[in-house]
Amino acid sequence: MDELYYKRTSYGVLCQKRQGRKNKELVREQSVVISILLSLFLFIGCNKKQDFVPQSVSFQSIDHLNDCSIDIENTEDEDIYLVINSQEDLEKYVIKGSVQAAQFCHDLQRDFSIDFSNKTLLIGKARLTAIEGQLIEQTVEKSGPEEYQYNVRIMNGGYTAIGQFKFGVLVHKIPKGSHIKFNVVIEEYTG
């Protein structure tokens, strides 16, 4: 039950309503529930991405990109990384003017027979300061719920001349809206 109490101050007598025991307990319970809910919300929201464990993704390497006369996107010696999800994009960005039947090698033609309903092509080229580069290692991993990384290590060639090194892999279909990061490292020739 609420009761009034009087308190003498320098300004005069102050009259206040004293809260009963039930109101104090109710306010305390509400504060505890709100604190728990807020903590739970922050914990779940902040830990969503941290709970993801990176996973290795299986892939099929496209091995004959540097053996055949083919240009990715353009003929300039600049770095380009592409995610190809359709035959139209493959023809537009990769095979376009270089598919003269006589020039296009059969092994690469076989590699480019892709079923894009369940495959994605990750492909690119890197500028080299020395030609005859060599692929050291490549891996693909799922680094988040909708994040992928394509890691490529290339050794620079042994002949001083500006050139390019092409690389690519086929992976299971990557969902639309996913973020794909290409990590390309070029190491100096050690031969």
How would you portray this structure in words?
This protein has 191 residues and is of the alpha+beta class. The chain has 2 domains: 3-47; 55-187, no CATH class. 22% of the residues lie in helices and 42% in strands. The protein has helices at 21-47, 87-95, 106-111; strands at residues 3-9, 12-18, 55-56, 59-61, 80-84, 119-131, 134-144, 147-155, 159-172, 179-187. The strands form 3 sheets. It has a 4-stranded mixed sheet, with no helix packed on it. A 4-stranded antiparallel sheet has the order 4-9-6-5, covered by helices on one side. The protein has a two-stranded antiparallel ribbon with strand order 1-2.
Question: What tags apply to this protein structure?
Answer:
191 residues, 4-stranded mixed β-sheet, 4-stranded antiparallel β-sheet, single chain, elongated, 2 domains, alpha+beta
Give a short summary of the structure.
This protein has 191 residues and is an alpha+beta fold.
Topology of this protein?
Elements: E1 3-9, E2 12-18, H1 21-47, E3 55-56, E4 59-61, E5 80-84, H2 87-95, H3 106-111, E6 119-131, E7 134-144, E8 147-155, E9 159-172, E10 179-187
Parallel strand pairs: 8-10
Antiparallel strand pairs: 1-2, 3-7, 4-9, 5-6, 6-9, 7-8
